[in-house]
Amino acid sequence: MSAKNLQELLDQSGNIVELLRNSQLGAYIYPVVPAEFTNWRREVIAWQKTAVLFDQSHHMVNLFISGPDALRLLSDTGINSMANFPVDMAKQFVPVAPEGGVIGDGILFHLAEEEFVFVGRAPVADYLMFQGSRGYNVDIRLDERSPMRPYGKPVKRELWRFQIQGPLAWDVIEKVNGGPVEQLRFFRMGYMNVAGERVRTLRHGMAGAPGLELWGPYETYEKVRDAILEAGREFGLEPCGSRAYSSNTLESGWIPSPLPAIYTSEQLRPYREWLSPDSYEATNALAGSFVSDNIEDYYTNPWELGYGSFVKFDHDFIGRDALAAIDPKTQRRKVTLAWHPEDLAKLLASPADPEGPGYQFFDLPNANYGSSNFDSVVDADGNLVGLSMFTGYSANERRALSLATVNPDVPLGAEVRVIWGEPNGGTRKKTVQPHEQLAVRAIVSPAPYSKMARETYKPGWRTAASV
Fold this sequence. Notes:
The protein has 467 residues and is α+β, with helices and mostly antiparallel strands. The chain contains 14 helices and 19 strands. The protein is 22% helix and 24% strand.
């Protein structure tokens, strides 16, 4: 009997962890934008040396929320304070489950009075749509992420969304604008001109230097993109393909895909009954060496992901009591793990050695082989001291890096082991072939890892607590 919703699917499966670990979804894919425009190494280096154009038009949802109760809905569901959230400001928005586990995160833009848009992955958008349908006077409209289509084919989106980043980004921005552009405060919104179009902007710093996110109606996509590329040519601006895009996550220190903590809460049973059996939450591919029979062992709280500074108890919100009972000092914290070059070399050489061990494939530059990734991080005695949650290679740092959350007593500079590959030869996921595990040496390092990013980023959600 086929399941009608997520709850029925979970009831029929009998084991939530096994269901998600053997998902046939495959690795997370960035749709539409080609893998490379030049080559991914050149595109990665551009955001540190010159400038880069990120095309974020296709892989995230836009959820438009408006009406008299829009702000109340966001305040009731987010750990963030809404007491100081004026029009033309954005926030990194984080909702949690009643028990305190993070559901997801994304950027929330305050567009106008009683008008907002959330931009990010599906879990938060799904949750807001459900909660908004339960007694709030709001209008909610979903602009879905693009389907998988070749670049240049028609795609129906409401908005295009670009970022211009890198040390020469502001030179490109002012040339495009035809004159000076005010450097607003971080996460403040404004306007600029592009090819005769007045477009919205968000002051950002995704590549460790002042930059802007821009957006506008999708029908102007080609005109705006062409104008930016033309203006950026003299400054060495590179368009960034989907293959290079995720390397920025490694360098900037953002863990993008925690497992939504929605599978066990009795209070969220109506939500699971609302979610479809083919929703993101139902098909999410759980990957990695960490295995527990209890799905709650994969949940993370705000402090573990670096969002502790966002938790504000000046308002009532779902999960408030659970978070208030947590002592932040006892929680794991976000770090970067810098992999040992010799161990990375073993993984990369493995496919060319027919007589040697076969390891789980380490793809470049994004090595993740699931949607939500959990690799065990152990100490010299084999004790579990954390979880590695996003892994890849940075052409700027010339290192393999993992974003991880580790126990509070693990100091910066400590050597740990990341267990790469799944136990017992691996699961049935499409991205996995029979393999052996490898314990990879890694040094516990700050998040963000990039020296430039650590020194120039706004302190807060991207910065691991010092030890």
